[in-house]
Amino acid sequence: MKLAQKKTFKLVMLPPQSAVYLEWGAKVQEQNPNISLFQPKGLPEALEMIKNADAAFGFMPKELLANAGRLKWLQAPQIAPPAGFYYQELIEHPVVVTNFREIFNDHIGAHIMAFVLAFSRGLHYYLPQQIQQQYKPRPLDTGVVHLPEASALIVGVGGIGCEAARLCKAFGMHVAGVDPRRTSLTEGLDELFTPDQLDNLLPKYDFVIMTIPHTPQTEGLIDERRLGLMKKTGFLINIGRGMTVRLDDLVKALENGQIAGAALDVFEIEPLPNDHPLWTAPNILITPHTAGYGPYLDDRRLNILLDNCNRFARGKPLRNIVDKQFWF
Fold first, then answer.
1. Residue-level pLDDT at 3
2. In this structure, are 60 and 114 located in the same domain?
3. Strand, coil or helix: what is 260?
4. How many other C-beta atoms can be found within 10 angstroms of the C-beta atom of residue 128?
5. 1 falls within a domain
6. Among 35, 73, 75, 252, which residue is least crowded by beta carbons within 10 Å?
7. CB crowding 238-265: b at 16 or more within 10 Å, else e
8. Ordered DSSP codes for 83-94
9. What's the distance, CA 246 to chain centroid?
């Protein structure tokens, strides 16, 4: 079968440039000699170069978008860019946006299971005791969650959520997912629900695992009311985006014993201030936005960029297309 012939197009890698981006530019050009590649150092240069660009990589400010006369494809530089990336003019523009989702699935899946296993074996009790040099085992058969009899609700069943479901199932858990787009079960999922069913689901699960992005619909999703719906013996885990969980409400829930514990890798305010009461809340596990850490991430980002350049040149569907209205 004959491949579609590659077309020539202009790609602008938007500032600020970094050593990694300069290296990526060289590799894009090496593998795609049909591309006219430009890497402006600053905004004035970018304003001129974007005028007749077919594609761009990076953050696209409003003034650049207004100058982009024929832009058809924008590659976002992150899996879920922060609030402000998808402004109204960009949402309404015909440009297709793609992102870097799927690159963290294995790393973040392992991080989620580290939290699940820590809670199931009582490390949220014993780590503070270790710091205080206290040797105080809890009474026999307490402080343990027997995972083959436990359940997990994964809120957001994209690539990361699917990997979390697979890992939870490997430990014998009953696993359900909540997702606005997925319509069929994936490996590890026993049940699948839509977001409008969340309130009815929260009281039933031992672990509520948040993997969702920050969007207008998910901001503040887990608040005082929904924390009150969870099991008193339940645990909340958030590795998605910090703006989806109201920290002040979570602190109150932990201090009042409304839930058994929480583990967060992301926060409404980052970095989390030294004096924030979450640090000293009971039964909390905190990591500093490191769930995605692991090898090969830049290689995976570059592979998506190269793949999409090849697809764009051949007029093929792009990978990781974003619904701009919903930011993911």
1. 52
2. no
3. coil
4. 14
5. no
6. 252
7. bbbbbbbbbbebbbbbbeeebbbbbbbb
8. TTSS-HHHHHSS
9. 17
CA distances from 232 to 141, 223, 260 (A): 18, 15, 6
Torsion angle in degrees (nearest 10) through CA of 36, 37, 41, 44 = 40
Residues listed for the chain: 328
What is the structure's pLDDT at 206? 98
Residue 210 sits in the same domain as residue 155: yes
SS3 41: coil
Cα-to-chain-centroid distance, residue 149: 28
Residue numbers annotated as active site: 241, 270, 289
Sequential DSSP letters for 169-231: HHTT-EEEEE-SS--S--TT-SEEE-GGGHHHHGGG-SEEEE-PPP-TTTTT-B-HHHHHHS-
pLDDT-flagged residues of the chain (< 70) = 1-5
**Short-list 16, 10, 21, CA closest to 305:** 21
Write out pLDDT tens, residues 144-201.
Answer: 999 999 999 999 999 999 999 999 999 999 999 999 999 999 999 999 999 999 999 9
Rounded Cα gap, residues 37 and 10, in angstroms: 6
58-71: per-residue pLDDT in tens? Answer: 999 999 999 999 99
**Residues spanned by the domain of 175:** 105-286
165 in the same domain as 206 = yes
CB 239 within 8 A of CB 291: yes
